[in-house]
Amino acid sequence: MINYGIMQGRLMPCFKFQYQAHPVGYWQEEFELAKKLNLKYIEFIVDSYLYTFNPITNKKGVKEIQKIVNSTGVKVNSICADIFMQWPIKKMDPREANHYGAILETLIINLAKLGGSDIVIPFVDNSSLKNNEDFNLVTSFLEDFDQLCFKSNINLSLETDLKPPVFCDFLSRIKNRKVRVNYDSGNSASLGYKFEEEIKLYGEKISNIHIKDRRFKSGPVTLGDGDAELKKVKNFLVSKNYDGIVIFQAFRDDNQIETFEKQYLYFLEL
Predict the structure, then answer these.
(1) Strand ranges (DSSP E) for 134-240?
(2) 48: helix, strand or coil
(3) I want to staple 5 with a disulfide (CB 3.0 to 4.6 A). Which of 41, 103, 112, 138 is the partner?
C-alpha cells in the first residue's frame, strides 16, 4: 500500500500570498486537516523568510512537531529546503558556506529526530546548475555531509532541471552515500523530459516523488490538465513496489481542500 503525503501549506490559505512557503504561526492546523484526508505525512518547507521561526530549525520546535505528530499520526518524513533555491549553494562565498552548512546540518539532525528520511534540495530556477564551476562547488558541499547523512540515515534528494543524462553523470560524481533523486512529475513535463528515460538512468536512486502537473514550458495546472506522465508514475509506484516518499505538490487555489481532494481522487483512480 502506498502512503501519500502533502507539501506543507497546500491545505491552508497561502502565507503572505506566496504559492509555496512555510505558514509561520499557523502551521499546526494542517496536521488535523491532513489526518481527515487520510494523508500520512506533511513535507515541511524551510524557506529563507523568517526561517529561524520555522519549528524544524530548533529544539523547542522539534518537540512541538513531535507532540502534534504523536497526537494526529501525521508524520514529518521529509523537508523541502527551498531556502537553498532562494539562497543558492552555487553562489555562496566562503563565509556563507559555513552558514549554509550549519543550516543543512541542523535540518539533517532534526529530521532524524523526527524519524524522517529525506531532505529535498532544489537546483532549479534561481539555483539551477549551469556550468562546471557550479557542479564542482555543489559537489564539494554535498560531499561534506556524507558521514552525517549516513549516520543519521537521511537522504539528500536532489531536484534539478538538468537533462537526464547530465543529471545522471552529476550524480555519479558526488561521493555522498545518501545522495538521492527527487522526481517531480510537473517539472519534468514542463521541461519535456520522458519518464522512461529518467527511470532508466536513475530510477533506483529516486527516494522522493512530487506529484504535480504542468504543460510543456508552462506553469502548474490541475492534475490531468497538463503533460505530466501521471499514469506512468502511478504504475511505477505500484509495479516497482516503490517504498520512498510520495508528496502531492499539486495545483492550488483559494479552495484549498476541495481543489486538493479533486486532484487526489483523480490520481488514486488512475
Answers:
(1) 155-160, 179-184, 206-211, 213-214, 220-221
(2) coil
(3) 41
Average pLDDT, the chain: 97
pLDDT digits (tens, 9 = 90+) for 123-182: 999 999 999 999 999 999 999 999 999 999 999 999 999 999 999 999 999 999 999 999
- Residue ranges covered by each domain of the chain: 5-268
E strand map for the chain: 5-7, 41-45, 75-80, 118-123, 155-160, 179-184, 206-211, 213-214, 220-221, 245-248
Amino acid at 87: W
Give residue for cell 491552508: 12
Q: Is 183 helix (H, G, I), strand (E, B) or coil?
A: strand
Confidence tier at 239 by pLDDT (50, 70, 90): confident
CA distance 171 to 173: 5
Kindly report the CATH class assigned to 5-268: alpha beta
CA atoms within a 13 Å half-sphere pointing along the CA-CB vector of 101: 16
Tell me which residue has cell 535540518: 107
Helix or strand or coil: residue 76? strand
The share of the chain scoring above pLDDT 90, in percent, equals: 97
Give the mean model confidence (pLDDT) for residues 107-130.
98
Three-state secondary structure call for residue 3: coil
The 10 Å CB-count burial string (b at 16+, else e) for 43-73 is: bbbbbeeebeebbbbeeebbeebbebbeebe
CA dihedral 181, 7, 24, 178 (to 10 degrees): -20
